Amino acid sequence: MSEPNASEGPKGGVLIVDFGAQYCQLIARRVRELGVYSRITVPERAMFTFAHMRPTAVILSGGPRSVYEHDAPALDPKILEQGVPVLGICYGLQWMAQHTGGEVTPAKEGAEYGRTELHVQDGRDLLAGVRQDGTVWMSHGDKVARLGPGFAVLAKSQPCPFAVVGDRQRRFFGLQFHPEVAHTEDGGTILKNFVLDIAKCRTDWNPGNLAETKVRAVRELVGDRGEVVMGLSGGVDSSVAAVLIHRAIGPRLHCVFVDNGLLRSGEREGVEALFRDQYRMDLEVVDASERFLGELKGVSDPEQKRKIIGRVFVEVFREKAKHKRDAKFLGQGTLYPDVIESVAAHGGATSTIKSHHNVGGLPKDLDMTLVEPLRDLFKDEVRALGRELGLPSSLVDRQPFPGPGLAVRCLGEVTREKLEPLRFADRIVREEVEQRGLHTKLWQWFAVYLPQKSVGVKGDARVYEDVCVLRIVSSQDAMTADWELLPVDVLKRIGNRILNEVRGFSRVCLDISSKPPATIEWE
Ligand code: XMP
């Protein structure tokens, strides 16, 4: 996947130059939460994107490199001559200092990692409303040693004399800490001060209002040049994308829903009822469960399971797409994080923790033009758009469900004998949590099948059966997660129901691991 075309997307807003920051997406989200459009670009393309986007302000992100390394990310210093306010964060500040006559050196005693206190010297504009001696979160090995002409110190921290600096004349500001992370007190105030008060960006970004623009864009792209085929998973992203595309081209959209035998209870029926019966979409349901389970026979390695499921999905989908005579276009529910993750050129190799599989992860050699109406949106924005389009809350607010389905919750070899009790237990967890509205504060709530026998007694007989694990977590974005404790009476009821109604479990356990170090899914 590539970066969105520079000409795509609205004009104005904040252009964020990604120097390889871990938190770049967070900056973009914080800006959008202020009602201001933001987009991320790599340093090499920054001027090009600037020319098309005509942003009202620029933010330079942090990054893992040193400005004095010979192959440090190359940003054209002309970005400082465009007459727009610039906020440099961490590496971004160091880059700005270096290009405005200042000096950057390795920090040695000045290096700071983690929380530190910020002593405000000048509490006007950028730091208006920021508390004295509040906590900020730093992570830097280099430091600004000397400021260039025009800059003044606005705040210090114990080892860092240039924690916040600014040149009011040119509206250039720099922070040596990260305002976008939750550990920085008043970080949101600083970003708001910069974006709204200093840069005076227009607050006209409202993803809920995008429906008509998106529909028009799909119509323009597809025109009368053919038909669109897309895989519908029943998840939020592909559903919202399908509804948009359907609004644009009606019966020329063909959706394919692959039943891989790894779905939750009621999933397939729900998709049929909504998309075929209610939206009247052309929906083909392919029952490929035999094929998936056949290929998974005897396989217990988690990565191998994921790879097999991904591969078989592509095979099945490809066979179906071939039959759509005129389908030159492939619809996908790709989101902005998928796009920017693949262009964060300086982020270093993030190791593959798990190979993710999405309906969106189809290979290029299908030789079709992609239709991806959500590729500039974050997940919460897609939800807002889904609501605007009238999709039911049961769909828009549903918990994420992984592409490989129940296979990653059915440890070891995947068999029908294990899937059946797992599916039933999962349904019980969902019913008990959702009936009480407890899910609104949760990220995911599901059951896991642990093929570990333990002794129990049912009726008067000794049983030797497997373990059902409850995984209930809260999270902002799935990067980190906390386990959550449901009210004890609800846990008791879930435990009782699973042990009494589901065959195959002699024990129900609660997973009390946070992420990291655990992951949310068990495989
Ligand atoms: P982990 O287990 O890595 O999961 O903590 C993070 C989030 O991603 C979901 N997940 C997936 N989603 N395809 C997906 O679309 C996948 O292959 C996949 N694996 C995990 C998981 O449910 C959690 O929300």
Give the total of beta strands. Answer: 20
Q: Give the radius of gyration.
A: 26 Å
State the strand order across the main sheet.
2-1-3-4-11-10-9-6-7
CATH superfamily of the largest domain: HUPs
Provide the helix percentage.
Answer: 25-40%
DSSP summary: helix tally: 14
Stretches where pLDDT falls below 50 for ≥5 residues?
344-352
Bound molecules: xanthosine-5'-monophosphate
Overall geometry: globular
Q: Mind summarizing the main beta sheet?
A: 9 strands, mixed
Q: Number of folding domains?
A: 3
Give the DSSP E fraction (strand runs of 2 or more residues).
Answer: 15-25%
Q: State the name of the first-level CATH class of the largest domain.
A: Alpha Beta
Q: What distance separates the N and C termini?
A: 26 Å
Structural class by secondary-structure content? alpha/beta
CATH architecture classification name of the largest domain? 3-Layer(aba) Sandwich
Q: CATH topology of the largest domain, what is it called? A: Rossmann fold
Mean pLDDT value: 91
Plain-language structure description:
This protein is globular. The protein has a nine-stranded mixed beta sheet, sandwiched between helices. A five-stranded parallel beta sheet has the order 14-13-12-15-16, with helices on both faces. Strands 17, 18, 19 and 20 form a four-stranded mixed beta sheet that branches. The protein contains 14 helices and 20 strands. Helix 5 (211-222) packs across helix 6. It has helices spanning 24-33, 46-53, 91-98, 187-198, 211-222, 236-249, 267-278, 289-296, 302-323, 336-341, 379-388, 393-396, 416-435, 488-501, and strands at residues 14-17, 38-41, 57-60, 86-89, 103-106, 112-120, 134-140, 142-146, 152-157, 160-167, 172-175, 227-231, 253-259, 282-287, 327-331, 369-371, 444-458, 461-474, 482-483, 505-510. The protein has three domains: 14-198, Rossmann fold (3-Layer(aba) Sandwich); 207-396, HUPs (Rossmann fold, 3-Layer(aba) Sandwich); 415-510, 2-Layer Sandwich (GMP Synthetase, Chain A, domain 3). The chain is an alpha/beta fold. The structure holds xanthosine-5'-monophosphate. Xanthosine-5'-monophosphate binds at residues 354, 356-358, 400, 402-404, 444, 478, 515, 519-521.
